[in-house]
Amino acid sequence: MSEREQWSSKVGFILAAAGSAIGLGAIWKFPYIAGQNGGGAFFLIFILFTILLGLPLLLAEFVIGRTAQDNAVNSYKKIAPGTKWHWVGILGMITSFVLLSFYGVIGGWILIYLFKAITGQLNGLSSEQYTAVFNETIADPLLSIVFQLIFMLFTIIVVSRGIQKGIESASRIMMPALFVLFIILVIRAVTLAGASEGIQFILKPDFSKVTSQTLLDAMGQSFFTLSVGVSVMVTYSSYLPKNQSLPHAAISIVSMNIFIILLAGLAIFPAVFAFHLEPNAGPVLLFNVLPTVFSQLPFGMLFFIAFLVLFLFAALTSAFSLLEIIVSVISNGKPEQRLKWSWILGLAIFALGVPSALSFGILAEVKIFGKTIFDFADYTVSNVLLPFGALLISIFVPLKMKRSLLYSELKKGNWLKKGLFEAWYITIRYVAPPLIVLVMMDVLGIW
């Protein structure tokens, strides 16, 4: 039997897991959702939900993976043999497959913009011209597919090299670089004339803008941003040695995630306000509004290139985890099978993503329930599959794992107070399920 791979260190695991969590949800989705929900109040509520809901769910996935020391499907089989609970792992695979198919499309857009910025094609354009460039870019079928493929090829190559030589090695370079680039951008943004209004927007809560929708958006964002509900963290924690502390790792990842989101807010909103632009521009904020901002700064395109690089790093580290969960199941933990299945599955995901890449051009008129192919895939993953997976995991852990086993697993590598364990157990058993159901009912328009 082949020996199962492991992370070389706790730091390597934390950087890889944080990289999985710190993806497009943190850098692309959070700024425009915060912009649409009043800024600081939304950020504060998001932090509370991340700590009270996201962290317990993250720990729940960690416990499953480290207890079973197996892939996302076999982990559920080992803990609950003879039941159908392994379908939670299969659901995670399906979710990751669909998610990565359109995630690769956005990754391709980032690469296109990086190429255009480096070659000077984005210099000196007006706001209207940047909008036109973005619309033309995503509508170009050949450009979209070629760069989507390049993004997926890089993901495949890294995952095919394994846990230590591939994912961990790449994360050790990309995550520190991401932090450094972000800090440089934040320093530039907060020193702009008129930046103080943007700083106040993200740091000074205005609770008069809080509505029930704000609360629900913040709650949903809290576990979408942490990659919970896909069993990705079940997979990653299964490579973690038994002597490592799960609570310490989870707290580190959540802290890094919140810090990156704060940096994203401080890099974007001061610049947006300094140039009197709207912070609630929506999903196009990073592709339309930010080029407009950077083009008006000295050496602005250099800063925009730096932003695109960190954006790319965040997208790639998340893509690694999405492909890894699928490869680990299909290869059944056999290192000698990893190379073959990384390429087969990665290219299959690319093929599935082609219709999403074309849904802004030649397939724009193709609708599924009134949505483009890209929007339908995004909606299905974000509003149905992810929260449903998180709900099932929050039910599975207290139902199928003994309280004594959970306490023993969470104590390893660290002294854990019984009171903190009880708080986590109560949250995962009694608090998380109804809150997740509440979010699902809202996003699906059931109430």
UniProtKB/TrEMBL annotation:
<dbReference type="Pfam" id="PF00209">
    <property type="entry name" value="SNF"/>
</dbReference>
<protein>
    <recommendedName>
        <fullName>Transporter</fullName>
    </recommendedName>
</protein>
<comment type="similarity">
    <text>Belongs to the sodium:neurotransmitter symporter (SNF) (TC 2.A.22) family.</text>
</comment>
<dbReference type="GO" id="GO:0016020">
    <property type="term" value="C:membrane"/>
</dbReference>
<feature type="transmembrane region" description="Helical">
    <location>
        <begin position="376"/>
        <end position="399"/>
    </location>
</feature>
<feature type="transmembrane region" description="Helical">
    <location>
        <begin position="175"/>
        <end position="203"/>
    </location>
</feature>
<keyword id="KW-0812">Transmembrane</keyword>
<feature type="transmembrane region" description="Helical">
    <location>
        <begin position="223"/>
        <end position="241"/>
    </location>
</feature>
<dbReference type="InterPro" id="IPR037272">
    <property type="entry name" value="SNS_sf"/>
</dbReference>
<keyword id="KW-0813">Transport</keyword>
<feature type="transmembrane region" description="Helical">
    <location>
        <begin position="85"/>
        <end position="115"/>
    </location>
</feature>
<keyword id="KW-0769">Symport</keyword>
<dbReference type="InterPro" id="IPR000175">
    <property type="entry name" value="Na/ntran_symport"/>
</dbReference>
<keyword id="KW-0472">Membrane</keyword>
<dbReference type="InterPro" id="IPR047218">
    <property type="entry name" value="YocR/YhdH-like"/>
</dbReference>
<dbReference type="GO" id="GO:0015293">
    <property type="term" value="F:symporter activity"/>
</dbReference>
<feature type="transmembrane region" description="Helical">
    <location>
        <begin position="40"/>
        <end position="64"/>
    </location>
</feature>
<feature type="transmembrane region" description="Helical">
    <location>
        <begin position="297"/>
        <end position="330"/>
    </location>
</feature>
<feature type="transmembrane region" description="Helical">
    <location>
        <begin position="420"/>
        <end position="441"/>
    </location>
</feature>
<feature type="transmembrane region" description="Helical">
    <location>
        <begin position="12"/>
        <end position="34"/>
    </location>
</feature>
<feature type="transmembrane region" description="Helical">
    <location>
        <begin position="342"/>
        <end position="364"/>
    </location>
</feature>
<keyword id="KW-1133">Transmembrane helix</keyword>
<feature type="transmembrane region" description="Helical">
    <location>
        <begin position="142"/>
        <end position="163"/>
    </location>
</feature>
<feature type="transmembrane region" description="Helical">
    <location>
        <begin position="253"/>
        <end position="277"/>
    </location>
</feature>
